[in-house]
Specification:
The protein contains 10 helices and 15 strands. It is an alpha/beta fold.
Length: about 325
């Protein structure tokens, strides 16, 4: 049986170990960066890191099918960015455990009830990432106001943690399970929000425009890159609001992977309020090193933290 993976058909390897990295979708630049990091480290040691999955919006069944095919062909280790913890735990990850294949998660972890199925989580502290994004907004808009939050899927574990972190920071509350903001810290979430865009940038753009225009929010906070995935489309959208809302982009804040030159320029031109940037290349490299160590019988830390950094947009959008 042949295994279809993101690079084509899996060939037979004459030497070295084969590891699999399953992001949420293979055409997402963040998961492509993670795979490139994983593959670069693997090649240095004579191994391979395969990019498992399918293009298109994140789908747990497609992710699980890719994991199952890879396990059938044989892997020495598996790294997974979790789309839906319970489903994967009952299917592909249960099979990996039965087959004795060590599993690590990256970017998006399993929930606490299923931690026993993975040996390590590699990536940011997603709740802290959300808090940092919320603090950025609070510093830019200290008086608070009306806010809409944006995510991809209500069942996505790492994105849910980011939403909670944003609420903690904006509402200045201590509990990790912060509920919808209803005036805490001066911030109020509108009834239409949070937005869930199904991992589709075009839907995210429409939700963003509705928030900034008809709903007149003071801040649109996306815990992922979706509004700015296509820089030209995003710029046209916020510039198109100029007759009714000057400098609309200053109200948009995003969590994002490795930023492109175009996205950095949005910040410099004041067309984006701010961003918190993740390092997916570092996640991929650390994932390989953890899988390699586990495959050799070694131990790894339960949490391998990877960095993120804050970018503040210029005030007063320029043409």
């Amino acid at each position: 049986m042949l295994l279809c993976w993101a690079g084509g058909v899996m060939p037979a390897w004459s030497a070295g170990m084969v590891f699999g990295l399953a992001g949420k979708r293979v055409d997402d630049p963040n998961f492509q960066a993670a795979w490139r990091g994983c593959e670069a480290e693997a090649r240095r040691q004579g191994d391979r890191c395969l990019h498992l999955g399918e293009p298109g919006p994140a789908n747990v069944r497609a992710q699980d099918a890719a994991i199952q095919r890879a396990l059938e062909e044989g892997l020495h280790g598996l790294a997974v960015s979790v789309t839906h913890a319970a489903y994967l735990a009952e299917h592909g990850l249960a099979r990996a455990r039965a087959d004795g294949v060590p599993v690590v998660t990256f970017d998006s972890d399993l929930d606490a009830a299923h931690h026993a199925l993975r040996r390590s989580y590699i990536g940011p502290d997603n709740e802290a990432f959300g808090r940092t994004l919320g603090e950025l907004v609070r510093q830019r808009l200290p008086r608070g106001g009306r806010v809409c939050l944006m995510s991809a899927d209500p069942h996505d574990p790492n994105l849910d943690l980011r939403l909670k972190g944003v609420r903690r920071a904006l509402g200045q509350v201590d509990t990790a399970g912060a509920a919808r903001l209803q005036g805490q810290g001066g911030w109020t979430e509108l009834a239409r929000c949070p937005w869930f865009n199904g991992d589709q940038p075009e839907r995210a753009r429409r939700q963003m425009v509705l928030s900034l225009d008809a709903l007149k929010v003071d801040a649109l906070i996306s815990v992922g890159h979706w509004p700015v995935a296509d820089v030209a489309v995003y710029e046209a959208a916020v510039q198109g609001l100029a007759p009714r809302r000057e400098n609309a982009g200053e109200a948009v804040f995003v969590g994002i992977g490795t930023m492109t030159a175009g996205q950095v320029l949005l910040l410099r031109r004041g067309l984006l309020g701010g961003a918190v940037e993740l390092d997916f290349d570092a996640m991929g490299r650390a994932a390989y090193l953890a899988m390699k160590r586990l495959a050799g019988g070694g131990r790894v830390d339960a949490f391998v933290r990877t960095p993120f950094k804050v970018h503040v947009g210029a005030a007063g959008g320029s043409p």
